[in-house]
Specification:
Blueprint: H1 18-31, E1 44-49, H2 55-66, E2 70-74, H3 87-95, E3 101-106, H4 111-114, E4 123-128, H5 134-147, E5 156-160, H6 167-175, E6 182-186, E7 199-201, E8 213-216, H7 232-239, H8 243-246, E9 252-254, H9 267-270, H10 277-295
Parallel strand pairs: 1-2, 1-3, 3-4, 5-6, 5-8, 6-7, 8-9
Bound molecules: phosphoric acid mono(formamide)ester.
Phosphoric acid mono(formamide)ester binds near residues 56 and 127.
Length: about 300
């Protein structure tokens, strides 16, 4: 009797159990040393980015190609979306071409989940509004795990910046505590989420002595609808992560990118060896290879 394989989607990090995520971390470690591997050589992946992306889109494409898969990027600017086709119809039509997975980014929270009923292949969320960016959170977890050689239980992370509007923060706040990592939210009141679970502070200096990891975030100005600060420099006075604040502490510094230099992180901290921003990008390919292999 043939076995029907159930389609799995990755909409939020909660779609994978803790054991499955541990497996992804182990697989990603193996993939980090492999330039090419033909495991997905008969597969075809469509990427659909309705919001701009440098890292996530190219990382998925490189991950897919390193596994031997073919990738079709739909250029939204020249697609028939501009002729009034609904997103559901766009996705149904792409699904009719029988891809093996669709990777999607959209400004609307919850949109990837709403598209599941229109497809016969996995949907992978590459970021939806403020809601979720599961592959980013998994690569962040991988980077932390790699740095601390797996000893991550009870490590403390300060998440600094526009937490309220960040899907990276939302995903990490769901994922990291499952692995025993303790978040502290560091943000001005206007960017602080309504949350009673985690410790909060208005200044990184107030909590820096108990922190092992700092994750800086970009102010998500495109989601604000109003100016909270006169200029980005006014925000940076209190929230730019600088050498002055970190001193010589044994801390690693993360940022999902894109980094606004000297607003989110100072130039000198970006070139400090404790800064893992480019390592996160490198790790993203290996983690996405592991995720694609699992779902396809
Ligand atoms: N981290 C991240 O999502 O970056 P991009 O917006 O460039 O994909």
């Amino acid at each position: 009797m043939s076995k029907v394989r159930q389609i799995r989607h990755l909409i939020t990090e909660n779609d994978f159990s803790k054991d499955e995520i541990k497996d992804i971390l182990s697989k990603a470690k193996i993939f980090s040393n492999i330039q090419s591997y033909d495991k997905l050589k008969d597969k075809l992946i469509i990427t659909l980015f309705f919001e701009n992306s440098t890292r996530t889109r190219s990382s998925f494409e490189i991950a897919a190609k390193r596994l031997g898969a073919k990738v079709v990027n739909l250029d939204i600017g020249t697609s028939s979306s501009s002729k009034g086709e609904s997103l559901e119809d766009t996705v149904s039509n792409l699904n009719a071409m029988k891809p093996d997975a669709i990777v999607i980014r959209h400004k609307t929270s919850g949109l990837p989940d709403s598209l599941i009923k229109y497809v016969d292949c996995p949907i992978i969320n590459a970021g939806d509004g403020k809601n979720s960016h599961p592959t980013q959170a998994m690569l962040d977890l991988y980077t932390i795990h790699e740095h601390f050689n797996g000893d991550i239980e009870n490590k403390t992370i300060a998440i600094v910046g526009d937490i309220k509007n960040s899907r990276v923060a939302s995903s990490n706040l769901r994922l990291l505590p499952r692995f025993g990592i303790i978040p502290i939210l560091v943000s001005p009141d206007c960017f602080m989420p309504d949350d009673d679970i985690f410790e909060k502070a208005n200044s990184l200096e107030d909590v820096i002595d108990k922190v092992d990891i700092v994750m800086s975030l970009r102010a998500q100005i495109e989601r604000h609808g109003q100016n909270y600060y006169k200029t980005p420099k006014h925000y940076a006075i209190d929230y730019c992560v600088t050498k002055e604040i970190l001193g010589d502490k044994d801390i690693i510094l993360l940022h999902p990118g894109p980094v606004n230099r000297n607003i989110d992180i100072s130039d000198d901290m970006l070139s400090d060896e404790r800064c893992k921003v480019l390592q996160q990008v490198t790790n993203g390919v290996a983690v996405r290879m592991a995720i694609l292999e699992k779902l396809l």
